[in-house]
Design brief:
Blueprint: E1 5-9, H1 21-33, E2 37-41, E3 55-57, E4 63-65, H2 67-77, H3 88-115, H4 118-125, H5 134-153, H6 160-178, H7 190-204, H8 210-217, H9 219-232
Parallel strand pairs: 1-2
Antiparallel strand pairs: 1-3, 3-4
Helix pairs in contact: 1-2, 1-7, 3-4, 3-5, 3-6, 3-7, 6-8, 7-8
This protein binds glutathione (GSH).
Glutathione binds near residues 52 and 53.
Length: about 230
Amino acid sequence: MGTAIPVMVFRGNWEVGSESPACLKLLTWLRMAGIDYEAVPLRGPPRSQTGKAPYIVRPDGTLLDDSSVIITTLTQERSIELDSHRSDRERALMTTIQRTVESHLYFALVLERWRDNFEDTYRGYFRGHLPEPMPWILGTSLRRQILRQAKAQGLGRRPAEQVEAEVIEDLDALASILGDGSFFFGTPGVTDAIVFGTLENARKAPIDGAIQRHLAAKSVWATYLDRMHDLYWR
Ligand SMILES: N[C@@H](CCC(=O)N[C@@H](CS)C(=O)NCC(=O)O)C(=O)O
């Protein structure tokens, strides 16, 4: 239906559809929903209202941001049924999983990338796309902004061992909910896009961080993330 939706995303050099968890979540969900899109790599700061990516360009030229808002909007406009049959209890769990991943685990990933491994992160996100010193200016300014957010959220002020312990708790809790299922709630849905967006990013980045190590330690994650990758990104 219609033409491809332009989706503005961070797209750099790593082996993932986007280095940004929120962008990879949205792109994965669009693939799941069978919606045609064109991923447009950002070459400067996001122009969305929140200053964040991803965002889409609407047919009237306006910009719509926040991956969840975009997903809810497109779900309504295009009558997407991926999650329409979930029970109240499943919906409650979906919200809880989303908050765990996007409001907690995400910040642990941010600290691994932007505080502890900035050189690799900078190379992954920016290097080679624009003439120097633009990438460096963008990279260091994004770093300042993102680390300020991690401090405000709280995780950025905590000792590394405590953050790592909580990462393990998050991953173990998610693995328990997933159990031996192929998807979080039996059939693919937004929760799978959310979890994949963050965990596939942690797994594929050339950064030796706690999230990557703990993902590698439990075979359930390789099985799940490989399945998601094969279904939507091969
Ligand atoms: N709630 C937003 C979060 C988006 C988000 O945090 N995007 C990050 C990349 S993963 C970003 O644009 N960061 C740039 C910044 O914070 O300045 C969504 O789901 O779209």
